[in-house]
Amino acid sequence: MRAIRKTSFGAGFEMVDRPLPHVGEDDVLIQVKASSICGTDLHIYEWNPWAQDHVKLPLTVGHELCGVVVDKGINTDGPEIGQLVSVESHVICNRCSFCRTGKGHLCENTEILGVHRDGAYAEFVAVPAINAWADPPEMPYSIASLQENFGNAVHTASVPLVAGRKVLVTGCGPVGVMAIAAAKALGARSVYATDISDYRLSMAWTMGADLTINPKKQDVLSTVMDATESEGVDVLLEMSGAPSAIDEGFRALKPGGEAALLGLTSADLSFNLDDHIIFKGASVHGIVGRKLWDTWYKMRGLLRSGAVDLAPLVTHRFALDDFERAFELMAAGECGKVVMFPDPAEADGPLS
Predict the structure, then answer these.
(1) Residue 99: which domain range?
(2) What is the pLDDT of residues 279-301, one digit of tens each?
(3) Which helix (H) or strand (E) holds 286?
């Protein structure tokens, strides 16, 4: 089968021929129909310090996917062969204290597809059956493939109380604009968004932002204070990992506010802990992955009810063989979600 692999240190991937994955007794074999690109994949492609510290080579990359079950182990009782599924990329042990107390997203033995074990940028992938999430057969492949990433946004927007409150989202990459949509769907009074890219701020408008701010053109703090009658925001959803955005977000957070942090800085951070958190009495939540499986059920509700429509977020589709162009586009930032299709004939929209 074709698979996109990281085989050596340095930037880039390569397409190679690989054997079909082994299907264990508790696994399902999935024929990949679509796989979307995440910021984490871009980190690995560029081979930044985070990737160097976390990724085990050689490796088939990619962790956001949907596909059809084509084989299953003898111990599995579902999903059935022929079922369209999306995949939770965090493979957990189900034995440690975190797993046994309902905190599987913090499992100390987690292996992540495309980071610690072979992933989704291939024609086939094997995963534990428990990690396969059944989708409606009519769900577009592009939407099904990015549910895992949508889960990060829903988790981030669900941990602090957003209903009836003023929310600031810093960083309007794909997961940031999905957090905007999730916060609005969960009842936020207003959502403000910051990014240095006008393209991404346009996406933020499309996904429901009430006010967008480009820090290169506007002062974030004064703009937020004007919009909130000098109160500041109740909730900060930090999605960028950019030190300047983190600082601006905490400056705009009102005393007693809540912050949920998803963005990775990939480096040490200089941060005013005293003024931004301690003297503000702020509550800060670190967000990792999705709650298993609480977040997935919330996603299902938001999507099936129509409260969130992810279709406008899918801006580009590529054949899997054209992965170099797909990653160049992601690196440039002039896109929403980029989805790749192993079989171009199965793309659910025009290919770029």
Answers:
(1) 2-146+310-346
(2) 999 999 999 999 999 999 999 99
(3) strand 283-286
